[in-house]
Each structure stands twice: as C-alpha cells, then as structure tokens.
Amino acid sequence: MDLSNDNYAFGNQLNELYVDKSAIIAFLNQNIESHNSSICVSSPRRFGKTYIADMLQAYYSDACNSKDLFEDLKISKAKTFKVHINQYHTIIASGIDYVYNPADYLKEFEASIKRRIAKFFNSELKIREFEEVSLPAYLDLVASKTSDKFVIIIDEYDYFFRQYGSEKELCQKYLEILRSISESEFAKHNLSLLYLTGIFPISFYDVDNTLGKFKDVSVLNSPNSLNYIGFT
Q1: 214-230 pLDDT, tens per residue?
Q2: CB 202 within 8 A of CB 216
Q3: Residue 30 located in a structural domain
Q4: Fewest CB within 10 A of the end CB: N or C in the chain?
C-alpha cells in the first residue's frame, strides 16, 4: 500500500472500525468543473468532517497513488472512480491552524494558501517572489501561467466566524478572501473543486450573498447526504 503525505492520514484511519463515507466522492465528482463546484458541507461536531477532508485529499491528490486504499470502498463502484482519482494538485488547509489575533489570522490564512499553491511550481511562481502580492492577484497570476487543475479543501472554514464573530469588518474581509478563491480567474480556469467543511453553512454568515456560487449541503437541505454525513 502506497502511503505518502497526501494519503497517510486517511490510510491510517482504515481499520475494522472504519465507516465507509466514500459515497460523497461520487457526489463531488458530479460537480467537478461545473457551476456547483464550490461546495460547503456543514454538520455538527463529531460528524466526521475532518475525516472526510482527509479522504478527499487522498482521493484527488496527484502527489500519491491511492487506488489500493479505495478499491474496497463504495466509491470504487462508481463510474467516475477512475476518472478523477489522483488527478489534481490538491491543497488542504484547516481553519483551526491559524491561532492568532484576528488580523494576523487572515494574513496567515492568505499566505498559507499561496504557499500551498506555490509548492507545485518552479521559480516562476515561487512565493518568495510574491510575498507582498494579495491572494487574488497571486491566483490570477497562477491562472495566467498554467492550466494545471486544482482541488482546494478548507476544513473548519467557519472557525474564524465562531471565534471572531464580533469583528464585523474582518469577518467581511474573510468572506471576500473566500470569494477571491471561488470567483477568480483561477477559479474559472484552474479550480476544479472547492470543498469547505464547517458547523454552519455559508449562508448562515453570508447574509448579503457575497458567496452566491457556493452550494450548501447539510442533512437539513440534502436528505441524501445522510449516506455520507453521520456520526464518526
């Protein structure tokens, strides 16, 4: 079994207590590079959000070979299984990784996305040359230089809102950062899938519909999601 950085976390979870939630991959594959390719899956704590994020990284990442990990899971029976497995530059970030004051949190969040994208490229797009460039500007630069396809996974995206909800201006800025990822030239040409997890849906925070492109998925508005969202 080939385990690397991008499939190690998921590979270690496969044991006799494993609950197969891979059906979500078939759902996501249906939405790749479509008008519904920005998706937010919300559920309460202990419903396996981080576990699913690790699984998606293992499935989509082109930095590993994960076929053996999935061959006995539900997704292996889907028509799209072989089409998308290990085909994308895959970035995973967690909202709880940035424990700073609110302003520094946003700076580090933007910087971390740039660093994770830059690792796939040669010096032309290395981040040290673009440290002061905004995330939207950097994403547009990437779009102008390459046609490579990406999957971006942001686990616990709403941690910032839950921690710093009283900072209205910064919360709005965070929404704008998310929009810069989902509605940029990069999103049009390079982003195959943007997957967010959180306790609350995007619409709970985005009262002005800043992120209108996002598809909210929860057990409340998508009953079929019970097939892959549940207790760990």
Answers
A1: 888 876 665 465 565 65
A2: yes
A3: no
A4: N
Q: Is residue 73 part of a domain?
A: yes
For residue 212, give its domain range: 8-12+37-227
Decide: helix, strand or coil at residue 209: coil
Report whether 192 contacts 37 (CB < 8 A): yes
Query: What does the angle CA 26 – CA 193 – CA 152 come to, to the nearest 5 degrees?
Result: 120
Tell me the per-residue pLDDT of 91-119, one tens digit each, with 9 for 90 and over: 999 988 876 788 888 989 998 999 888 88
Supply the CATH number for residue 105's domain: 3.40.50
Tokens found for residue 60: 């989509």
C-alpha 88/C-alpha 28 separation (Å) is 14
Three-class SS string for 88-117?
EEEEEEEHHHCCCCHHHHHHHHHHHHHHHH
> Each residue of 60-70: pLDDT tens digit?
999 989 999 89
Whether 61 is in a domain gets the answer yes
